[in-house]
């Protein structure tokens, strides 16, 4: 059963201006593993984090670094299994969220689906 769906869109040029104007945001919003990516990828990751918050119905118990995005071996994006994220998912009886990201035409968009956990452990 789907527990929540979230979507977010970021204008890449505006996001880039914001990051340039406030350089500390890069470190605040992204983990060390994420920070070196191109701005378009950072914008998509920011959108994914916002979409996850929407899908969960709020950010209680989560900080920006708790929602790290990585690429799996098959190149699909996924959320890293951080302790705080797993704790939030456990409280909501949810599985690790599905995430899809794209950047095109000057915009980055992310879509997140949170499903109910069907087994004893979070995927």
Radius of gyration: 14 Å
**Beta-strand percentage range:** 25-35%
> What can be said about the biggest beta sheet?
3 strands, antiparallel
How large is the count of helical segments? 5
Low-confidence stretches: none
Q: Overall pLDDT, averaged?
A: 94
Into which percent range does the helicity of residues fall? 25-40%
Class by SSE composition:
alpha+beta
- Distance from N terminus to C terminus (CA atoms, Å) equals 15 Å
Lateral arrangement of strands in the main beta sheet:
1-5-4
Number of strands: 5
* Inertia-based shape: globular
**Helix-strand pattern, N to C?**
EHHHHEEHEE
EC number: 2.7.8.7
Catalytic activity: apo-[ACP] + CoA = holo-[ACP] + adenosine 3',5'-bisphosphate + H(+)
InterPro entries: 4-PPantetheinyl_Trfase_dom, 4-PPantetheinyl_Trfase_dom_sf, ACPS, Ppantetheine-prot_Trfase_dom
Cofactor: Mg(2+)
